[in-house]
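Apologies for my clumsy wording, but can you show me some protein sequence, whichever is easiest, together with the matching structure tokens, please?
=====
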Amino acid sequence: MERLREEIDRLRVEWCAAFGEMKRYFYSEIFNIFSITYDPTIWYGSRNPALIYPLEREMRFSTPNECVKFDYYQSFSSKLGIISHNFAYLADIYEFYNGDLRMFLVEQSRFITTIQRANLRIAHFVPDALVEVTAQGLRSFMRLKGLISEASYENAESFLSSGGVIEHEGANAQKEMRGGIGADKKSKKSKKSKKSEAGEDMSAMSDEAVERDSDGARRILNSEYEEVLVLLETLGLMGMPRRDDVIAFFEELNEYSPEFVSVFLKTQNFSYAGIVTPPWLNEDSRFGIRRRTSLIHAGGIIARMLERRMRREDAMSALENFTVYLEDFKPEEVVDMRWINLEIAMERVERSLRVYEHKASRRSSFHCYEDFSNALRRIYEREERALSYFR
């Protein structure tokens, strides 16, 4: 118990450092009355690693705990990303709901656009941390499900450091937890998926579908597929356009690792989410899937198709309002830039942009690298215009 307390104290320092780092880029005086606390009951009640409680003026993290023996967001960058995401909700509440938390929570329970707008907002100042949250969340999800070895998880580098280091300068649904809000994480949809929980016997997995790290550790998702999936998910979490055939990607991934895909599609995923919009366009079918129930339903349809229980043409017909790309619409302009320190935010966006432009120049089989670069470029140019206006 003493060892756990020491670990929690250490992690609280890291979370507080991430909070301080965020405030260099994204700041409102209201942030000063918030504190960072540890509360494992958040996980037991909502299976969420971190939530913000606007009424209690707290941001609470919940791991490690009795169910999850590790820090869900292990890297500093992922902590920066998730804490920025949670505080971005406050900007959304003031911009679109006139500060009405109840109205926001009702809408968040029905639509994913609140999540998308929060992620789009933080892409304006810490886009690298946004990608790292997605990557770290994916790895922790795989660890909980027994799809990645402990050694592979512990030895994993931060997502961006493998392809262009971006250093920090400092040291996912409505939850029935008295108004706590935060990023959605991978979790089971119902009791029916209980057998895919961590601890399930994974020994029956095909060796052909398993890659091994240099230390011999078992790895069910190779680095190329992981990177593409992370970028598709990040673009979907932002509600930005994706030109890749997302269904074809999951078909290809399923050939490599059907065990992973089977578990992954049981969760709420954003690779096939629609385009981000303001609240008054939530019901507009032109922008793709934005209802939570529709997103989960889409995952079930794709899973049945991959299991040969539904023909591809029938699956595509059943995917109502399936759109991940839209021309003549500027999703980056959906959110305003309140509370963002534009000068240093632009510097960080530009560094991320250079990383992904380089990645895009070396990879031609997937569009997601270029799509993410394009998203960052549009955000950077928007910030540049705004800064020149204020000068």
